[in-house]
Design brief:
This protein is α+β, with helices and mostly antiparallel strands and about 325 residues long. It has 2 domains: about 130 residues, no CATH class; about 130 residues, Immunoglobulins (Immunoglobulin-like). It is built from 3 helices and 10 strands, in the order αααββββββββββ. The strands form 3 sheets. It has a 4-stranded antiparallel beta sheet, with no helix packed on it. A hairpin with a 2-residue loop joins strand 9 and strand 10. The longest helix has about 90 residues.
Length: about 325
Amino acid sequence: MESNNRQAIFIGVIALLFLLNMFLLYQNQRLRSQHKDTVQVMETEKNTLQADFDRTIAELEQYKLDSEQKTTEITDLEGKIDEQKQEIAKILSKSNASASELKKARQLIEGLRTSADDYKKQIEALTFQNQQLQQENTGLKGTISEKEQTLQQKEASLAQAEAEKAELASAKQTLSEQKDQLSSTVKRGSVMQAANITGMAVDVRKSGKEVATSRARKADQLKVCFDVLRNPIAKPGRKEIMLRIISPQGDVLSVESMGSGVFTEGETGEQMKYTTKAAIDYQNQSENYCMYWEQNSSFIKGNYTAEVYNDGYLIGSGGFTIK
């Protein structure tokens, strides 16, 4: 009886162990199936996240700008996006990423998409501003071109006016020169003419009587006489005569304290010394005049030249000799 009970218990234990083994086997199969489903779900989630990540990156690539076009805000936002991309790529590159890591990747991708939206708005705003600036620039270029064309036209008109002004100035200068030349010609033609110019040394006696002498040692004065000829175009009236006596040494006899001075030569404008001067009453008829020169030193021997000037012009000359 006791043997049968033990056998029954043993069989019951074996049956219980069999049932327990079957339960564990079932549970193991169920857990494997659940794990497989979980892995598949996580793999699907990872693939979905990778696709969202790639799509977001592709959209960002379409809005790339040259560095010269970027604002500070865009550059800072690109730095933030690069950090987000690196962190997401690090999680998605894991072959056994956990559910919590995939959840974090999902949050990071959502943040990346928000940054991408902000980035696109910045780019669109910058693009709009650039278009506005380009339109303004185009309009400004057109305005500048019009102003340049107007300026060129004004410069051309000014150049023409300057050319006409220069032409008028040249004509005025020519007319002035012709007028001066005519005036000089008229002036030259209106001066008197002298002829028969003679010179001699004079010895003045105590009685005041003049005696001509050919000796230099006896000479007290030099006397130059000349005939003033009739000139129909010369106006009558007081005329000033300049006398230049040139010594044998080629010097003009000139002592300022005794009436000598300087005048302007009518032809050349040169300043010339004169020996003495006198005023005559010219009545437009031929007359003979004499002029005297007495100096504070002795006269020397040799050939002298006498030059007679009126209004700065030479009207006659002659020579004489003192022994």
